[in-house]
Amino acid sequence: MLKVRLNHSFFVIGAILVLVFGAEVVNAADIGQLSVSQEAAPLHASVLAWSQGLKTYSLSYVVSEWWLYYSGAPVTSDQPRISEITLRWDGQNKYAHWQRLDEPGTVYQGSFYDGKCITLSSFNLDAEDNAPVHVTWDTPETYFAFDIPERSLYAPMFAVGSETFFSPSLAELLSEGESNVIERDGRLVLRHVFQGKRVFEFDFDSQGRVNTVSHYFIYTRDMLAGYYDGDPFDLPNPQDMFEYSDYVLVSGFWFPLSVRHTLYAPGPDAEPLFTAIETGQLDSRTAWIEIQRQGLFTESIFATIQYDPDSLIINEPLDEAAFHIDMPKNVTIMRRVPALAGSHYGVPIQNKPAFTIVAVGLGVLLLVAVSGAVVWRRKFIRN
Q1: Which SS3 state, helix, strand or coil, does residue 335 take?
Q2: Residue 12 domain flag
Q3: Residue 261 lies in a domain
Q4: CA dist., res. 125 & res. 106, Å (int)
Q5: pTM for the complete prediction?
Q6: Mean pLDDT of 219-228
Q7: pLDDT, position 334
Q8: Phi and psi (nearest 5°) for 45?
Q9: What backbone torsions phi and psi does residue 239 show, to the nearest 5 degrees?
């Protein structure tokens, strides 16, 4: 058991949050694979309750995303990608409206309601008269098939901690593993270790609300045998961090209006060690231990998420109109054509050249979006 003397106020705050959210202090004997120290129990319970506190929402927000270090090289542009998003969710149905503010001209809408997903994509292809072109599909999907990757939406269930950049949800992660309390720089930190190697650290503001969530990997002692004799926590492999601020209380839920999300990757100083792996001079485990021992990581991508406080509807019923998309009269209906296994492309039912360009554009835009979400992970996760 950790010998850390806890500030009494945190026990009071934790107890209050347990009462407010109806969470129970976790008993390891009841869960089986969960072990929570006595010192950590109030903080663990409050974080778990917060992560499960969003039941429904309707809100609008702006995401500004900076790419700093991409695929092993610095990014020269210092201009962010800025998106304006409206998102609604009632636990089952979902609506999304996404548009780029720094490169206007493209708007995506998606609605999943009553088991059917309908999308509408709008483009300004004609620079002279700025006439929009609208595209939808002839048959709905049976799942939320939005044209923008889910993580690029920075949904609140992700941005306030209910989901992580790497699934499963935070609530699921907190239901298995080991939680303890450590002290760092005079502040109390809840450390939760999932499956012995995936770590989440939570620190709190003066009112007991989550201030930051740090997510990193460590090696288990068995993995380090013969390589390193020290503490596995001295070799963190940082993945991402959330920072929350400007909390407001809405329908009994503490919602952070400002969120910053940072992703990490091995930086330029790690390149010689990757070269040593490729040339056979070092095995990957030895090289990665050295990268982690020296902390050769850098910020890869960071995003700021700013919510519009006037748009917040939290934990209130949403009617069918909240998930409705108004289809314009001149919408082009695309027919799905099977392509590779598990994929498809579209051809217009009205066969006009301009619409064929739209169909190609949809595929290109989706490819760029997906590539942007995954390519940076080339060296992100260790072997």
Answers
A1: strand
A2: yes
A3: yes
A4: 9
A5: 0.79
A6: 94
A7: 86
A8: -65, -40
A9: -110, -60
CA 142 to chain CA centroid, Å, is 23
Closest-CA residue to 309 (of 259, 257, 373): 257
- Asked if residue 214 is part of any domain, the answer here is yes
Neighbours of 277 (CB within 10 A): 16
pLDDT in tens, 240-277: 999 999 999 999 999 999 999 999 999 999 999 999 99
Angstrom distance (rounded) from CA 323 to CA 327: 13
Task: Please check whether residue 191 is in contact with residue 232, taking contact to mean a CB–CB distance below 8 angstroms.
Answer: no
Q: Which domain holds residue 182?
A: 8-54+156-311
Q: Helices 284-294 and 271-278, interaxial angle, to 10°?
A: 170
Q: Which of 87-96, 266-275, 360-369 has the weakest average pLDDT?
A: 360-369
Q: Number of folded domains in the chain?
A: 1
DSSP helix/strand/coil, 183: strand
Angle at 274 between CA 270 and CA 275, to 5 degrees: 115
- Any domain includes 375: no
- 213-219: list long-range contacts, CB under 8 Å, 24+ apart: 213/161, 213/241, 213/242, 214/238, 214/241, 215/164, 215/165, 215/166, 215/239, 215/240, 215/241, 217/381, 217/382, 218/193, 219/289
Classified as helix, coil or strand, 168 is: coil
List CB contacts of 265: < 8 A, sequence separation 6 or more.
69, 297, 298, 300, 376, 379, 380
pLDDT digits (tens, 9 = 90+) for 104-157: 888 999 999 999 999 999 887 555 666 788 899 888 888 888 878 777 888 887
pLDDT of 361 > 60? The answer is no
Mean pLDDT of the residues in the chain: 81
Check: CB of residue 261 under 8 Å from CB of residue 299.
no
CB neighbour list of residue 203: distance below 8 Å, 6 or more residues apart: 184, 187, 188, 189, 190, 210, 211, 212
CB 309 within 8 A of CB 247: no
Given a contact cutoff of 8 angstroms between Cβ atoms, the answer to whether 315 and 255 are in contact is no
Q: Rounded distance, CA 156 to CA 145, Å?
A: 18
